[in-house]
């Protein structure tokens, strides 16, 4: 299909403009009416091409919700009275924490730390380097505080691997990676606080959203965190969901690297990010790398076992240049294989879950569909290893999906799928933003 880059770019900018509410960019017009953490990072990359002020405003707004202990929340709530989202601020009860800001209201968990490499990208793209440098100076301590929080409170054995304690922290809410840990959580649905999902009101998204069993567990965990007043030590002792995720730690590695670059530019002492960087890369290769399967596993810290499922999260450490060249070549083979369908004309790259898995579900959220942000991370990773052919394939598939079907949240990976390929909400901000970034490369 011939893509009209100019037209696609204009459409993408219109999506971002439409989702901008004057203070921050929403991930989507109605399904996600507040500000989300890693979304804000990807959105800033898109805006940086034509509206650096907006990119900076979004990140400033996000960090206005940062907690005093450095934790950067998954959601910073806006104050639109018509916003319908569960769980809202009343459910999170962030005020129970001694660290949460008075305002804005936030959730009490975090998300993959994309902000380091996002800042560096903003700087690279900026025409006005002085303004961009001043912004780096403003943000560097905040991102450092986030990473310090992660290494202090989320790496209990000081291994260099950070754990997440809720599927929403991973950003891949119902990924098969979490299945076993969630299934083993014995919860009594009658003992859960009452709640009403709002996500099912979106008719197109409803069919693909996480199940009721998933939501019961999401809610159970939030309730547990509230009961612990969001104290990390107490949560670590009580929480049955503690997972070291290769996507999260791969992104962390890339951002560590960016903090070294930013710190050097600003003349800061970079000993701390250097140490994080080396340790995390070493630990990922030592503990999470799976030579036989050719990708990185997740590790369940609570049950003390590897989680060997074939999700594309296991390929994401490429973006942080975690594998060496030989490992990266193994990963490329896996991507090319029928698991992810890399050379198969009937597959849109890159499915989030192995197409050979018995329970792959082509339209169910993070259990098979193509997501543009993961494609973008994969593309960046492949480029770092001079795997330009496959990188271009990932890029081309992403652009074509968006040009054909619109800026959807996720896409059915089967090129010959019956019905609609665009899934979830339309006019999804990070799809539009990363489209702009790709188009700018020509
Ligand atoms: C919970 C906003 C977010 C993304 C996540 C995506 C989805 C939320 C939800 O939407 O998660 O955080 O309600 O399903 O899974 O990656 O950041 O776009």
Q: How would you explain this protein's 3D organization?
A:
The strands form 4 sheets. Strands 3-4-7-8 form a 4-stranded antiparallel β-sheet. The chain has helices spanning 5-19, 37-47, 52-63, 89-92, 115-125, 129-153, 167-170, 179-183, 203-206, 212-227, 232-238, 246-266, 271-288, 325-336, 372-384, 388-405, 429-440, and strands at residues 35-36, 75-76, 163-164, 243-244, 289-290, 295-296, 298-300, 305-307, 410-411, 422-423. The chain starts with a helix and ends with a helix. α5 packs across α12 and α15 (372-384) packs antiparallel against α16. The model has no long low-confidence stretch (mean pLDDT 97). It is mainly α and 442 residues long. β5 (289-290) and β6 (295-296) form a beta hairpin. It contains 17 helices and 10 strands. The chain binds (2R)-2-(alpha-D-glucopyranosyloxy)-3-hydroxypropanoic acid (9WN). (2R)-2-(alpha-D-glucopyranosyloxy)-3-hydroxypropanoic acid binds at residues 27, 32, 36, 38-39, 74, 168, 171, 173, 199.
Bound molecules: (2R)-2-(alpha-D-glucopyranosyloxy)-3-hydroxypropanoic acid
Shape: globular
Q: What strand order characterises the main sheet? A: 3-4-7-8
Mean pLDDT: 97
Q: Short description, anyone?
A:
This protein is mainly alpha-helical. It contains 17 helices and 10 strands.
């Amino acid at each position: 299909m011939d893509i009209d880059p100019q037209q696609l770019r204009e459409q993408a900018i219109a999506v971002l403009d439409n989702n901008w509410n004057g203070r921050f960019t929403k991930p989507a017009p109605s399904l996600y009416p507040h500000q989300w953490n890693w979304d804000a990072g990807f959105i800033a990359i898109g805006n940086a091409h034509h509206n650096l002020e907006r990119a900076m405003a979004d990140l400033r707004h996000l960090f206005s919700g940062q907690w005093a202990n450095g934790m950067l929340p998954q959601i910073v709530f806006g104050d639109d009275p018509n916003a319908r989202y569960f769980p809202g601020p009343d459910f999170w009860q962030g005020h129970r924490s001694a660290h949460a800001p008075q305002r804005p209201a936030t959730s009490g968990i975090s998300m993959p730390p994309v902000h380091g490499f996002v800042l560096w990208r903003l700087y690279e793209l900026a025409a006005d380097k002085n303004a961009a440098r001043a912004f780096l100076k403003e943000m560097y301590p905040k991102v450092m505080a986030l990473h310090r929080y992660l290494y202090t409170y989320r790496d209990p054995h000081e291994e260099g691997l950070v754990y997440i304690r809720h599927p929403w922290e991973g950003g891949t809410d119902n990924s098969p990676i979490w299945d076993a840990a969630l299934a083993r959580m014995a919860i009594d649905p009658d003992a859960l606080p009452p709640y009403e999902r709002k996500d099912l009101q979106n008719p197109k998204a409803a069919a693909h959203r996480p199940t009721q069993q998933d939501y019961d567990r999401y809610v159970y965990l939030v309730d547990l965190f509230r009961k612990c007043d969001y104290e990390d030590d107490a949560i670590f002792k009580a929480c049955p969901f503690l997972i070291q995720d290769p996507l999260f730690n791969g992104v962390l590695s890339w951002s560590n690297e960016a903090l070294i670059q930013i710190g050097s530019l600003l003349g800061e002492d970079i000993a701390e990010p250097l140490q994080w960087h080396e340790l995390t890369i070493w630990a990922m290769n030592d503990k999470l790398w799976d030579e036989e399967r050719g990708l990185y596993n997740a590790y369940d810290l609570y049950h003390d076992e590897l989680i060997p499922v074939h999700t594309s999260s296991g390929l994401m450490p490429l973006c942080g240049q975690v594998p060496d060249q030989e490992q990266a070549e193994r990963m490329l083979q896996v991507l090319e294989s029928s698991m992810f369908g890399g050379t198969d004309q009937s597959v849109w790259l890159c499915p989030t879950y192995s197409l050979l898995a018995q329970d792959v579900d082509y339209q169910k959220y993070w259990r098979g569909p193509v997501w543009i942000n993961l494609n973008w991370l994969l593309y960046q990773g492949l480029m770092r290893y001079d795997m330009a052919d496959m990188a271009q394939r990932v890029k081309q598939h992403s652009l074509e999906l968006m040009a054909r079907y619109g800026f959807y949240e996720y896409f059915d990976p089967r090129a010959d799928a019956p019905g609609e390929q665009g899934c979830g909400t339309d006019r999804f901000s990070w799809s539009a933003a990363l489209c702009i970034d790709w188009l700018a490369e020509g």
